[in-house]
Each structure stands twice: as C-alpha cells, then as structure tokens.
Write a structure and sequence with these properties.
Blueprint (H helix, E strand, L loop, with lengths): L6 E4 L20 E2 L2 E2 H11 L4 E6 L6 H5 L8 E6 L5 H9 L10 E6 L2 E3 L3 H11 L3 E7 L34 E10 H4 L10 H11 L4 E5 L4 E3 L3 H13 L14 E3 L4 E2 L4 E3 L2 E3 L4 E2 L4 E3 L2 E2 L4 E2 L4 E3 L2 E2 L4 E2 L4 E3 L2 E2 L4 E2 L4 E3 L3 E2 L4 E2 L5 E2 L4
Parallel strand pairs: 1-4, 1-6, 4-5, 8-10, 12-15, 13-16, 14-17, 15-18, 16-19, 17-20, 18-21, 19-22, 20-23, 21-24, 22-25, 23-26, 24-27, 25-28, 26-29
Antiparallel strand pairs: 2-3, 6-9, 7-11, 8-9
Helix pairs in contact: 3-6
C-alpha cells in the first residue's frame, strides 16, 4: 500500500444550503451517525495512513479546536488555520500552505468538508505518483450529471477539460464529475495566488490545464454523496448507520438504528432505516422514527411520526405530529397534531402551536 501524504481539509464553508442546521454549528460539525461529520473524514484519513492534517477554517472557526484538540485522540497531528476573509477553495489551500512539511514534489491530499465517500485514498495517491501528475482528481460517475461540473478524460485517465453544468443533453459528454478530493504536487499549491478568493474548480484547474500541466483523473465508483442539503445530510447519516457508507468512526454497531448514551426510547416506539437518536434524546410511546436523525436532547412525543427528517438539538416534536422530509431547528417546538413536510425548515427556537395544521414550503 502506498503511504498517504499529509492532508488539507477544507472546512470553512458557511453551509448556507443546510440552514438552519448550520446557524449555530459549522457544516462539518453537524452530527452524522452520532459524531460530527468531520470525525468520519478524519478517521478515514488516518486509516489510510495520513498523520498530519491542516484544517482550513473560516465560518465559526472557534468550534473546531476545542472539540478535536491536537488530534491525538484520533492518532493525528491537527493544525488549524483561520481565514480572515473567505478565500474560496483555492485561496484556502494556498493560505494553509506554510503549515505543510512536504517537499516540492511530494503529494498533498485535499479533502472537502462536506463529501461522504468510500474513496480508496491510497489508490488515488498511487495513481498520482505513478502517472507523474501535477494534480490528480477523484472522479465519480453519477446517473444524472446535470447538477455537476463534468470532467472528461482520455483512455489513460488524463483530464481533457472542465465543463460547466450541462444545460442540454448534447452537452453531457461524460458521466464523470469532480468528486471533491485531490492530490496536489506540493509545488503546484505555491502557484495559487495569495490574498484573494480563488476557486480551484473555476480558476486553478482550468488554468493548469491551459498551461499544459498534467491533471490525472481516477474514477472511483464507491459510495459518494454531497451532504450540501438537509435531505442529503440525513440520508448520509442513515447510510453510515446502515453500513452503506464506510467509516471507522460510527460509535456502535451498524444496523437499523443507533441510540446514543442517555437517550430514552419507549419500548413500543419503532426506529428503522438508519435512524439516530442522540444523547439525552427522548422518543415517546408509539412514535415511529424512520431514516431520521434526532440530535442531542431532542424530544419526540408519543404517537409522533418522523420520516427522512432531522430534529435539532433540544428541539421538540409534539404528540401525533407528522414530520416528513423536513428540518426542525435547534430548540424549536413543533406542537402537537401538526404536519411538517416536503422540505419545510422550522427555524431555531421557533414555536408552532398545537392545532392540526399542515405546514409545507408552498404554504
């Protein structure tokens, strides 16, 4: 197995699409399968041989270090670099470069803090080293690539172009997309401009290709999910619990549900499809929780039904209420006999009175 290099983890995004989950918590710290999502990424990096990780932080940067410290509990050496102003993906990479120990030709791994993947990390590093590439990209094949930038490659895997999201069927020339994990030759990082926002996707990669640099793609079609929306985040957490997505950091056995210490679940309540019940959470008599996440201290009253949803820390779902494909923010109170569905987001600390009312985004 090829020894993995040191790594940069990009965790500075505001997580706007995930609100209200990210009003009080940075996106990579929102719990998935019982622990902050970032824990899964760090654990998988360590399992692949990575020892030194530099975190590029920005939004709510003060949250990370108190939780992970120096990384020794995970067998890692962690460092933190906070951007004074948001610098984009490329700018963030360049901003943390002084903390790297690698030589000019050494490989440096780059991960995005919102991608859940089963990527074979050593294989990506080996592909990079064997091909002699300047940058290597993890590519994933998706059934519907219209929401992503396309990355066609030649027979040897060399990247030919970076194409914007296709607007017509004729523009879909490949099903390969940029999956958000890279290996950079250390010296390439030093060519990224400093002091201004830079996007690796829109500026760095196309510019390198235009200059004749060697960009290599490695297609790895294992599990891959962008956790950018509440629905995707809940699904990713459930897939971790069910064992569909790999992680050595899930705190318990894989199965239909994960109940953390201090939680109370009524004997006749039903938990299924990867449901997580957080520490100190409560599930009342006759409640049914399917494919959902209840964060620490959440309260689901008797007879409530929660499906494919996320109930925030300290939030409450009233008796007999139905929550389907929705988010109840931290500290919010959805009273009894209500129906929340179809992507509705109840903001942190909001209160819905009892009353048998249906709430959906178009209401």
């Amino acid at each position: 197995m090829t020894q993995a290099p040191e790594a940069i983890l990009l965790v500075g995004g505001k997580g706007t699409r995930l609100r209200p989950l990210t009003v009080r918590t940075p996106k990579p710290m929102v719990p998935a399968a019982g622990v902050p999502f970032l824990t899964h990424q760090l654990a998988r990096a360590r399992a692949a041989g990575v020892e030194h990780v530099v975190m590029a932080t920005s939004y709510l940067a003060e949250v990370f270090e108190p939780y992970f410290g120096d990384g020794s509990d995970l067998g890692l050496h962690l460092e933190y670099v906070t951007e004074e102003e948001p610098l984009g993906t490329g700018g963030a990479i360049r901003n943390v470069a002084p903390r790297l120990h690698s030589g000019p030709d050494d490989p440096v791994l780059i991960f995005n803090g919102d991608i859940l993947t089963g990527l074979d990390i050593p294989a990506l590093v080996a592909t990079h080293q064997e091909s002699g590439a300047d940058v290597s990209l993890h590519l994933s094949r998706v059934e519907d690539p219209r929401a992503f930038g396309l990355v066609p490659t030649d027979e040897a895997g060399r990247v030919l172009a970076f194409l914007e999201k296709p607007q017509t069927p004729e523009e879909i020339v490949t099903d390969q997309i940029n999956a958000g994990a890279y290996v950079f030759r250390r010296s390439v990082i030093d060519t990224i401009p400093t002091g201004r926002p830079v996007s690796v996707e829109r500026e760095t990669f196309p510019g390198l290709l235009e200059s004749g640099a060697h960009l290599q793609g490695m297609v790895d079609s294992t599990y891959w999910l962008d956790l950018g929306t509440p629905q995707a985040f809940v699904r990713g957490s459930a897939d971790l619990v069910l064992g569909r997505a790999p992680s050595p950091a899930v705190p318990g056995r894989r199965g239909e549900s994960l109940v953390l210490d201090g939680a109370h679940v009524a004997p006749d309540a039903k938990l299924s499809e990867g449901t997580v019940v957080g520490m100190g959470a409560h599930v009342g008599a006759g409640a049914r929780i399917t494919g959902s996440t209840l964060l620490d201290g959440a309260y689901v009253a008797e007879g409530a039904v929660v499906t494919d949803s996320l109930i925030g820390a300290g939030a409450r779902v009233g008796a007999r209420s139905h929550v389907t494909g929705a988010v109840v923010g931290d500290g919010a109170d959805a009273g009894a006999d209500n129906e929340l569905r179809d992507g509705l987001r109840l903001w942190c600390d909001a209160v819905l009175p009892d009353g048998g009312v249906r709430f959906s985004p178009d209401r």
